[in-house]
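A further point concerns the way the authors explain their paired sequence and structure data. Nothing conveys this as quickly as seeing an actual entry. An entry of this sort, consisting of the sequence and the corresponding backbone structure tokens, reads as follows:
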Amino acid sequence: MKAFIMRLWRKFKHTLRTQAQLIFKTVVVANPDSKVADGLDTLKPILATVIIPALNEEKAIASVVEYALRDKATGEVIVVDDCSTDQTVALAQAAGATVITSSMLGKGTSMQDGIAAAQYEYIVFLDGDLSGLQEHIISEMVKPLAHDGADFVKACFGRGGGRVTELTAKPMLKVFFPELARFSQPLGGIISAKTSLLKHLTFESGYGVDIGLLIDAFRKGATIAEVDIGSLEHDSQSLQDLTSMANEVARVIHHHSREAGRLHVEQITEMYEAQRQATASFDYIINRQKNRSKLVLLDMDGTITPNRFVLDLASHTHTSETLEALLDKPKNDAGTRSKRIAEIFKYTHRNQFEKVAMAMAIRPGVIEFVQQMKRDGFMVGIVSDSYFIAAEIMRKRIFADFAIAHILHFQNDICTGELKINPDFLPNGKYVEELICKSNVLQRFLSKKVKPSFKEVWAIGDNLNDLNMLNLADKAFVIEPKTLAFQKHKRITEIQSFTDLVTTAARAD
């Protein structure tokens, strides 16, 4: 009886939410060869801000900027750089774009940063790796907005959708959002919209940003148009990137379907929690090596940040006294201690963890050091005894390549208090409490199975739990050391700030 009542309640909520939606309308501009600019010439000039999120796009960025500036509907071009290590910034500026630096790694943040800097109400997003564009696409994308035909416009193009589009996005849209199933390129990055709408949408940080915007615009009652722009060419992506994209796209669709009352299978959230956890593993990370043979490993608490994440989180969640009681006890093994601390944060919502991680202070010079090392061909990562949910945010904030940390379990975005020790911290992945150590992470990078092998390794830490990792590195540094034990190790250099490391890296180059 109870299950029957719950089903009726869910159906009732879904009906209410569906009726609350504004009328959905799709507009298709089917003749891309017509010169829309001619139609706009008879009106007051319509101008748009063209925003191009970019990360290491030196091959095509200049041509994309020049293309956009040729269009009569373009008022300005803003390239939002995600801390590129190639010539993207210089080439974009030389081509006539205004270049700003993203406030945080990730396409979604870059898009928002571009919107904040835009002068015009109409926004057109382009990707930085496009080629084969026909003329007047900017004008075509702006036309439905200018004539009040739409609030949000997706481009469609001649070729069929990619593997993730066809095998993940479209089938899921048919199930959860059939109103959007008609869009031929739901994952496409060529989008136009009104700034007034965009400021009320949620921007995902990863591969799910474009599908997320489409669904969010629909859920907020926006009128959505689809414009045929002919054909274009994109750089192909690796299988690993396609896998990550598929996982992220599926997660975003499931999230919106649950929020809209269209999803009632709670086990699905568990499946994507497991996929999130997989991104914290060495096996996932090493696929992004991209032939680099140099490595930098950074501790987080006390090194990148002056403070410890759990202390800041305890202060934020008013559990400092409970945490202090645990910290004051004699140390047991690292694993048991970490698990008991994790139990303090049971029932804490995921967004509280994220909020604290976003607010933590970063030492001066860290971002400049990371950027310098990446320019010098290093793979840069965070190895932390803290929680992956915090380390991953910190990775994005400092523009690093990866983060490896322990995994807190969440159920429906609520922390269960369960901690999984990352097996990369264990010798051969075998769980032995007293052998949990960051040096085991570095040993995996130095394994003979890794190709190409890492020929140069730098490591930076601050405390005793970093010592074994530092001793394995070719160059080891400590900042504000918390123990005198480092004084016995002549190979470990104490630094006063990350500015010192930037200078050291520049000299080594």
